[in-house]
Amino acid sequence: MNLTKAVMGMALLSSFASAGSPARTSATQEVTGLLREFMWAAGHGDRQVFDRFFADDVIYTRATGIVIGKSDIMKGLGKPTPASQPTSTYSAEDIMVHEYGDTAIVAFRLEARTLEADGKVETAHFRNTGTFLKRNGQWQAVAWQATRISEVAKDQ
């Protein structure tokens, strides 16, 4: 799996809403919007969104256990994909957002679908946890952890 897929495999969300969830505060709404934008960008290799999403001092632990920074994340991005032809799509389930003033913690289960060259779709599942800080009025991920879920554990 290349770095782009690993980075994308972290990242995120088609819907944060669930039945019976409490009312969302402004911080949760802002982070949710940022994550939704990032999910789309992850499937399209949008460098500008990645640059805004990750803080310059982000600590990212890949599913392989390797720790990287923003420059590594940006280097690993491939060429942008046309909006009508993404080769990967991402969705998130079981999303939790906890707010602590100018800090928000997000945890969720990610499904990554990648169209391979032979026409088959590879599906992978991850658990992700991200820490966001609001600096100068902007939310950015300062820490990220992606853990690949085995086939046995994916339904748990």
Cα radius of gyration in angstroms: 15 Å
Please tell me the total number of domains. 1
Task: Find the CATH topology.
Answer: Nuclear Transport Factor 2, Chain: A
The topology string of helices and strands comes to HHHEEHEEEE
**Secondary-structure arrangement, i.e. CATH architecture:** Roll
Residue-averaged pLDDT, rounded? 80
**Proportion of β residues?**
35-45%
According to CATH, what is the class? Alpha Beta
In words, what does this structure look like?
- A 6-stranded mixed beta sheet has the order 2-1-6-5-4-3.
- The two termini are 24 Å apart.
- The protein has one domain: Nuclear Transport Factor 2, Chain: A.
- The chain is built from 4 helices and 6 strands.
- The N terminus is likely disordered.
- Helix 2 packs antiparallel against helix 3.
- It has 156 residues and is an alpha+beta fold.
- Helices cover 26% and strands 40% of the residues.
Short description:
The protein has 156 residues and is α+β, with helices and mostly antiparallel strands. The protein has helices at residues 3-10, 26-44, 47-53, 70-75, and strands at 54-61, 67-68, 88-100, 103-115, 121-135, 138-148.
Relevant terms:
six-stranded mixed beta sheet; about 160 residues; alpha+beta; Nuclear Transport Factor 2, Chain: A
Record the SSE blueprint.
Elements: H1 3-10, H2 26-44, H3 47-53, E1 54-61, E2 67-68, H4 70-75, E3 88-100, E4 103-115, E5 121-135, E6 138-148
Parallel strand pairs: 1-6
Antiparallel strand pairs: 1-2, 3-4, 4-5, 5-6
Helix pairs in contact: 2-3
